[in-house]
Specification:
The protein has a single domain, classed as 3-Layer(aba) Sandwich (Ribose 5-phosphate Isomerase B, Chain: A). The protein contains 6 helices and 5 strands. The chain has helices at 14-26, 45-56, 71-77, 91-99, 115-127, 134-140, and strands spanning 4-9, 30-33, 62-67, 85-87, 105-109. The protein binds D-ribose.
């Protein structure tokens, strides 16, 4: 069965989203596209939350969110339990987000990254495993305990 990856952007990221989507499909992934699909101004939380819910509920093991800076999408997605959304602007950061943080969503800053670097970040994110070990302990400590 094909692995499903959720993807969404706001108006600042929809052109890059189409390129990322083409890459994912070329690599054999099923892509669940939550929009947006044009230049009309939209609000990034309206797109981040459905994608983060798909990851939170286990329907999609991984997702990619794109806005102008990546920050709005990342902040909204990280409100969801079990979501670890990492802002990635270089392939090395994308690799470390997987190796050390076991990130399950990548946020890309469409207005501050070249398309080829963004696509390299996506490939790196998909291909890099979590290292576990001491990082497992740290990732487990991310979840807020009742105080
Ligand atoms: C839209 O202008 C911009 O604010 C948005 O794409 C994103 O960068 C927010 O964090």
């Amino acid at each position: 069965m094909k692995k499903t990856i959720a993807i969404a952007s706001d108006h600042a990221g929809y052109l890059l989203k189409d390129k990322v989507k083409a890459l994912l499909e070329a690599r054999g992934f099923e892509v669940e596209d939550f929009g947006t699909n044009g230049p009309d101004s939209v609000d990034y939380p309206d797109f981040a939350h459905p994608v983060a819910s798909a990851v939170e509920q286990g329907r999609c093991p991984m997702a990619i969110l794109i806005c102008g800076t990546g920050n709005g999408m990342q902040i909204a997605a990280n409100k969801h339990q079990g979501v670890r959304c990492a802002l990635c602007w270089q392939r090395e950061i994308a690799a470390l987000a997987r190796q050390h943080n076991d990130a399950n969503i990548m946020a890309l800053p469409a207005r501050f990254i070249a398309d080829d670097e963004a696509l390299a970040c996506v490939e790196t994110f998909l291909d890099t495993p979590f290292e576990g070990g001491r990082h497992q302990r740290r990732v487990e400590k991310i979840v807020l305990q009742n105080s």
